[in-house]
Amino acid sequence: MSTLAASHSRFDTGIYHGKLGMWVFLASEIMFFTGFFGAFIVLRNMNIEVFTQSAHHLDKVVATINTAVLITSSLTMALAHLALEKGNEAKFRLFLTLTIVCAFGFLGIKSYEYATKFSHDIYPWTNTFYASYFTMTGFHALHVIGGLIPMTWMLGKSLIKGYPQEMHHRVETLGLYWHFVDLVWIFLFPTLYLIF
Question: What distances in angstroms separate CA 24 from CA 20, 63, 112, 132, one per listed residue?
Answer without folding.
Answer: 6, 30, 34, 26
